[in-house]
Amino acid sequence: MNYSAFLQLNEELSLLTIMVILLIYDVFAGEKALRFFQPVAIGLLVIHTIINCVPKEAFEVAGGMFKYTPMQTYVKTILNVGTIIVFLQAHNWLNEKDSIIRRGEFYFLTLSTLLGMYFMISAGHFLMFFIGIETASIPMSTLVAFNKYHHNSAEAGAKYLLTAVFASGISLFGISMIYGATGTLYFDDLETMLTGTPLQLMAFVFFAVGLFFKISLVPFHLWTPDVYEGAPTNVTAYLSVISKGSAVFVLFTIFTKVFGNMVEQWQAILYGIIVISITLANLFAIRQQNLKRFLAFSSISQAGYIMLGVISGTAIGMSSLVYYILVYMFSNLAAFGVISVIENRTGKLTMRDYDGLYQTNPKLSVVMMLALFSLAGIPPFAGFFSKFFIFSAAADKGFYVLVFIALVNTIISLYYYLLVVKSMFLNKSEHPIERVESDVPAKISLVICTVAIVFVGLISEIYNQISLLGFGI
Amino acid sequence: MNILSIFVLIPLLMMIALFFTKTRGQINFIAATGASILVILSGILTYLYLTERQAGNVAEMLFTSDVIWYAPFNIHYSVGVDGVSVAMLILTSLIVFTGVFASWRIDPMPKEFFLWFCLLSIGVYGFFISIDLFTMFMFYEIALIPMYLLIGIWGTGRKEYAAMKLTLMLMGGSAFLLVGILGIYYFSGAQSMNLLDIAANHIPLGVQHYLFPLTFMGFGVLGALFPFHTWSPDGHASAPTAVSMLHAGVLMKLGGYGAFRVAIYLMPEAAHEMAWIFLILTGISVVYGAFSAVVQTDLKYINAYSSVSHCGLVLFAILMLNETAMTGAIMQMLSHGLMTALFFALIGMIYGRTHTRLITQMGGLMKIIPFLGVSYVIAGLASLGLPGLSGFVAEMTIFVGSFQHADIFHRVLTIIAASSIVITAVYILRVVGKLLYGKVQDPHHEELTDATWWERLSVVTLIIAIVAIGSAPFWISNMIHDSLMPVMSQLMR
């Protein structure tokens, strides 16, 4: 066997190296040296992102188990950047008394989920895909339960683990049916063999449930609000953006590539799922007081919007989807960044607590407002462009009614995003949150997000680059 | 750099400059300078436009510039103006200018107020100069969102309710619009989202039947089309003075302009077939708005309903689909913009002194604050269409144009709509009588002071514009008239 082919996996290898370095560092370094642990971790990840951000030629390793396409580099880079931002935001939280001794574990676990996502994204075989998704979800449940002495966090961890395992089981069942129906699990071979017979359709449905769970689409979303609320805020941010983003991309590639012949069937399924995801999540979001639960429902509806890129199944749909993930990442992380800063300093988390925030913390309120506007799709912020493109991609394939339903839902979503803006800017409070001073890493992360929200949409070069590598059915 | 892009650039620069200001003096200085530059710029643009036309340039859009923005979607940043847009740009500049002076003493947070105000004007200017559907839609939405905060923070009365209602309803309109725009682009098979390109292609008639109502209603929401007008009275009544001025004066014109530029221009066949439905709706707007204004007692509500009526007339005239009526429609946009801005400015000034807007609690103000009183009478006379002021020219043209249709349906509607002039006279004269003449209702009102210099500047500018259009309408109506040719030839198709 030719092992040198594995050197082509340089992105995976360099991430693995970082993990090993950090593990050794954490175990063997003394008290003094450990003070630099976090800057080193972030620095290494930045280097890792930079050296791996240029797309390579497409290749296959391990007989097609691992299939690389250039677009994957962009997706992985987006995930990397998101992880860096989450690390920056988690800096302060990890230095608290409770979590400082487990700091190394946080980085190790987070990076393992990231590695799992890499393999999931690049899978060319259902088993590789399954290994990837499991590597991503099991450490994730540990992360969710990271504040293990907090009742909510432990409960959320258990909830996440149980539902994730259950979903993986169903997914695996679907995969085994695919194997039973066709006798192979290689994506390339399956492309022609899956023609939409009833057995294959059933296999598809079982398989898709696992992914829908990961993306938390209705009706597989019931874990989302509780887990988002219970998990430490920075983990929630990671869960809502990185984990979701990778799963969405995989879903697109598998649906269009492997199930390309069953396009009518899965479009019909997705159609229903998009409509109920967006609508239901939006209606539930209106009633939320807790901001983390609020963002949980908002992220479910955002997932529904992202699916509009999938349903088109075109190259332009794919590039719009990747672009949407990018924009969504910056917007959501900005919102979570603000929430985590305020939660860490004051422990306040409900919408009513945010009354009059602009008077005491103008900068944080403005960042939060921009993030919410971007999520709602208000120009000139990036969210407007990503929404427009994804709607445009769906309309291109004739899904006008669906686009219209989605648009009506953006109005509902605007309503609840504006509720937060209203409480920060319009409402008066007797006891507003006092002035909080955010730490430098959190500030850096918020500045990155804000700059991205304002400029990513206006600079068309970013989208154009992504669109060069898009592919569809 | 293209002269048109400067219209967007200046408010942007103002925003950046405002960001670094500390005192109210600096803020006002920047706002006033920027607004004055915009007025001068619109003057220069008008001059350049007219000389260019005189030199025999018959291109549909002048001063065009086109930059590819998002190549995969064929989205360009393309700008260009014809006579109609020039007229709208003049209007916007005048109202931004007077709006700045009307909010000279805005409180609290003047800096934030002007930041949002500038963002709002970016949206409006951008909308009028764009000839690309995407950029047009983008600027349209940019103009909507600052309204929420402007009304929510600086408004009066039920401001939170009004702000939310306004934002959501207008966003609802833009949802219709976006579907319409995407449909227009994909079904026309054009190579770009440029209006002129799309107009050169033909949208299949079957599709037009869906897209025309979508786009027309989308813009109609902003143009106070019945039954989507309900945001307008609450919104206008709660907004701070300058925002009411800009909103009623300019933003509502976005609706009429968009309906004309997108719905009618791109889908002429459907316009012919479906105009009757919307004619009835706009007819209701016109009459219903006027009747509602009669029974209101709050000055701002009176004016808001009057705006519904007048803006309904704009859409009504556009739907008549003939040259004269459309010229009248554009003139009406101009005239109503100036007049309603003047009204809202005056109401704001009166409210700032008396702290009430109920006409039952005021009276005899003419003797106490004669400048504001006289100006109010002038605004009222313009509104009810006194010859010599702008309202007369516009309404006259509209009704002459719509009476050119020989069938009973159009004639009856015209007569009904024209009856609104009488009702307008009723509510205007009633207010003038109650508010300005008669006994002083509240002894405290005896000590009121008349307008300050910045208020006078703002009011006088608007009055001059109204009188100018009223007494010398032809240069502007010819400019508009000439620019209607492309639309007319589309409609003849």
Could you explain how this protein is built, in words?
By secondary structure, chain A is mainly α. Chain A has one domain. Chain A is about 75% helix and about 0% strand. Chain A has 20 helices and 2 strands. In chain A, a hairpin with a 4-residue loop joins strand 1 and strand 2 (about 65-70). Chain A starts with 9 loop residues before the first helix and ends in a 5-residue tail after the last helix. The relative contact order of chain A is 0.10. Chain B has one domain. The radius of gyration of chain B is 21 Å and the shape is globular. Chain B has a two-stranded antiparallel ribbon. Chain B is built from 20 helices and 2 strands. The longest helix of chain B has about 30 residues, at about 325-355. Chain B has helices at about 5-20, 25-55, 85-100, 110-130, 135-155, 160-190, 195-200, 205-220, 230-240, 240-265, 270-295, 300-320, 325-355, 365-370, 370-385, 390-405, 410-435, 455-470, 475-485, 485-490; strands at about 60-70, 75-80. By secondary structure, chain B is mainly alpha-helical.
